[in-house]
What we know:
Elements: E1 5-7, E2 11-17, E3 20-26, E4 31-39, E5 42-50, E6 56-63, E7 69-74, E8 78-84, E9 90-95, E10 108-111, E11 130-135, E12 138-143, E13 156-163, E14 166-174, E15 182-186, E16 189-196, E17 199-205, E18 211-217, E19 226-229, E20 236-242, E21 245-251, E22 257-264, E23 269-272, E24 276-279, E25 282-289, E26 293-299, E27 302-309, E28 314-317, E29 323-325, E30 331-338, E31 344-350, E32 360-366
Antiparallel strand pairs: 1-7, 2-3, 3-32, 4-5, 5-6, 6-7, 8-9, 9-10, 11-12, 12-13, 13-14, 15-16, 16-17, 17-18, 19-20, 20-21, 21-22, 23-25, 24-25, 25-26, 26-27, 27-28, 28-29, 30-31, 31-32
Amino acid sequence: xxxxxxxxxxxxxxxxxxxxxxxxxxxxxxxxxxxxxxxxxxxxxxxxxxxxxxxxxxxxxxxxxxxxxxxxxxxxxxxxxxxxxxxxxxxxxxxxxxxxxxxxxxxxxxxxxxxxxxxxxxxxxxxxxxxxxxxxxxxxxxxxxxxxxxxxxxxxxxxxxxxxxxxxxxxxxxxxxxxxxxxxxxxxxxxxxxxxxxxxxxxxxxxxxxxxxxxxxxxxxxxxxxxxxxxxxxxxxxxxxxxxxxxxxxxxxxxxxxxxxxxxxxxxxxxxxxxxxxxxxxxxxxxxxxxxxxxxxxxxxxxxxxxxxxxxxxxxxxxxxxxxxxxxxxxxxxxxxxxxxxxxxxxxxxxxxxxxxxxxxxxxxxxxxx
Length: 370
């Protein structure tokens, strides 16, 4: 295969703020962000860049902490989804177009860079899942979306097996019910946590889809949002919202439970995304509510910052009332990525009227937040 070619689709500008470097990427006819991943203290974004004829190119853009960028055009397919190999090289799954069979829906998984020694794969049925981590010599993807309409259809995991830094085989496994699991990978163990009517079910699973160990954590009717740490042998820490408060539940190996208060917050979370670890025991998470969105940072179970965009052009840190001013009120947080130690990047785009295309991405690089 040939390597991807460089392209310059953006008008780029930078703005220094007290919160970090804010980079603007403007596309003439429109840009839609599709995926992103961290690598080498930078981030890599996958975007659809629209042309005047309403067609689009798939473009990968590297964004460094100082806002410098480099872009490349993908010729092998669309609908890109990034994942890392066990040696942390970046791969991407894309959907090619088959001129001999235009109705065929399939994906190929290939390196993003340095493709000279890669043969074009035959392709396989697409797996609708997100990359969640590395387990032994597998890259692991989790699909809790494609069967979300049916409570009797289980979540699925895909274990992408590597040998000599090349994909050997993809293994698709169904997770035994219950569904809607959160997945946490640590110390060569894949942990699952799911809500049930009688408590939280904590399990570990292997690459064959076999449940290795499980316990039921008696938390009553409390629900949870995300896993900060999950273990059978040491304390676990789970993010929750309860009675207008954001808390962390500390759960011991013997199921002793303690609530750790983070902040009083009356607006109900609609969604809280996977924690992004920026240093040991330090996590950044984005969230949405009925009224806006934002993000917060936790270190050693203490809240460092809590930014919320509600009824203002920008985001206010509710811990000190400092405001990150933006030119627009209706911003959407696309993704958050770790960069250097204790630092991260946030990708924003504008909410547009129906039928209009967004023409700008904003990337805020926050450095040394703790």
